[in-house]
Amino acid sequence: FVSEPGKRAIIELALRRKNPDTPGNLFALCEYADMLYYGDNILGKPNYPEAIKIYRTAAGLNNVQGMETVCHPLALFSLSYIFYNYHRRGKLKNIPDIEYLEKYTDLERIEIAILYSKQSLSIMKTGAAYNNLGVISENLSADLVEKYSLLPAQNYYQKATEYNYVYAYNNLATQEIKALNSDPDHEMLHLNNCIQYLSKAAESLEPWASNWLGNFYLSGKVRYSNKIYKNVINRDLAKKYFFKALDYHIDRNSAWAAANLIVYFPDIYIQNKYLLFTHIDICLTKGNDEVLEFLAKSYNIDCTNFIHQQTVKWETFCYNFRNSIINKLL
To answer: pTM score > 0.85 for this model?
Structure first.
């Protein structure tokens, strides 16, 4: 978290508006680009074109006088991530066209993404850049992996874990889940590896891994596979991991964890109304329609008018939805 005065200081150091002839501070430029990318700015929403411009400046790619020979390696990584994931994966998949990126073909963007990640690693070894190369390698055809001299994805993910990059643990776990079905002779080895990787990510309070483990210990089901291991069911562990998903970075996975606690562990709220209010609000603010429908179905609450038709105001829906759950539980 950066305070408002801190944000203003970062922007001033980055843009040097009072001293336009002085190059921006390299680290402030990268921080400012992050603010634009994640929506932590005056608009309150991402500004991807401007973020790319500032990342390019921080990476020494914009021919800014006085910055021709400097480069922030994380700015290169961020550009690599954007070039590869643009209109392909995650939050960048369905965004409007960005004129600067549309100048390149899809294959050219992939080539640039690989180049920038490798250049970033040549300056400073980071788990983020190794993981990004792993994602690219895993999703390219074998001939393109060979053409661009990439290693197998697992090699990059393993390297990223040396820097405790939590998303690399998630990616390794996902590979082990796929192997549960494709390599039945080593089923338990893959399961144990999967749990080990996700446990390491969860210890770093990564919400996706924490919620995954919570569901696993609650039901014995392995998400994204057809496997069920009822002998591992442990409600205490399930509750522990659902809470871990709420400990640090709150996202949609956290909303699912909060919903799971509300549905499967209602007793924890009997003496703690504030905790229930907090978890309901996480579901409302970070959850999607599926999270709300899961809660509504579990407590026999009708919310179809809002979710599917939006015939009531959001504030009214939140008030009624919150009170309906509270009345069912307390």
So the answer is: yes
